[in-house]
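so my prof wants the structure for this chain in the tokens format not the other one, which i didnt know existed until like an hour ago. anyway here's the sequence
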Amino acid sequence: MKLHNEGRKHIIDVLGGMKKSLSSSKSQAHLISLGDLGAYGEAGTTACFEHAKAYLDGFQLPYNLVTGNHDLEGMDEFATDVENLQAWKKVFGINAPTFCHQIGDKTLCVGLSTTRFRSSPFSSHEVYIPKEQTIWLENLLRQHPEEEGWRVLVFSHAPPMGAGIRVVQNVHIKNGCAFLNHSSGDEERRVFIRLCKQYHCIKAWFSGHFHLSHDYEDSITAKEGTVFVQTGVMGEKSTRDGRRQSRVVRGDGAGLHVYTVNHHKGGELRLDVSIRYKPGGEDLVEAHGHEDYAHDKWFSAYRPQEEDGCYLQSPDGIILEASDHGGGEKVCWWHMADGRVLGVHEGQVIEYDAETLSPLGIVVDREQLQGREMVVVGEGQALILVSSLDALNEKTTAADYDIIHPNQDGSYWRRWQRNKLVRQREKEREKIAADWLKQNFK
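here's what i got, hopefully its the right format
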């Protein structure tokens, strides 16, 4: 906890400095946790929640919090997600997994929480927001319109699909848990970005989940009138890129200023973006340059663009030849006849959401695709893999090629990661069987 305690002091010092510089006596600070409390092995337990509460109380600030996927992972202590969530609420003294707090003049902070882990149909690490929370959110947005001067800041553990925030392709995209409701149906995934498009009172949306720093150009994006902000981590063990950072947001009535607190640089403060409200029009978003990583060497997921030059208007025929696999540099994307969007990137076949063009998941991985040719046939009705088109002849049988069939819901991407509780119970049964065999057949 040494680094976490150090990080807490950094934030308290920054807020103290800001308060001194503000002329208004009404200035107030409010803390928000984006979830995933505790360390590996104890996440989601009562002890973890109590430890986290003591830590958050140490800021001596009013605070709200939302759940992350790991906050419902206390499977040894709780039999169901409902019991796990109830324990979280009890420890923190709250009644609902959502919150709405007025932070300033006509400015709301609103939080959404994931509510399932054991009951997830696919990856347990999907950050799932149930329908009752989205209904609650839309009602709240409807009651606080931009036309009346309201500004809403939304907080969730994962970002909405379509936010354009940098993601970890081989972890969160592959496992179907990068975005809110990622492994759920199209409508459930798209509802959040549609709300941003419909209700311009949503000025900013803050999320974490990826354990990435703020030092990427796409750690802050502007889409559909909303600024989306990635938030990093404090702990050394949980950072993916070695940097430990938190966000501080300052409002001044005319807009917002989003800062980074660099914990690995002794609490250094850096201004990243300024948002100036413009009633009845597009807000002005001014990004402030800073030291970046070499982006191409770090975690990213290619996102098709309408004018990127990689779109195939008529995809019939060979999409990928065996000779294209050398450096995995081929990039292209196209629409299948059913409207689904597929593409080739880094030697893999990826499916993209047809509405937002965000990456959904991997259809064919590098190993399966290596040395094979990919062909779209029937005017986009079928996708097949063959070792070589030249080797096909009248004696060719179904054993000589693979058809990439869509899933039952019409999507093509594969659900690589299964529910954690199911996998855990399988291991338990395997151990029981192994012990029985050992005892009876020595």
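also thought this was worth mentioning. The longest helix spans residues 420-440.
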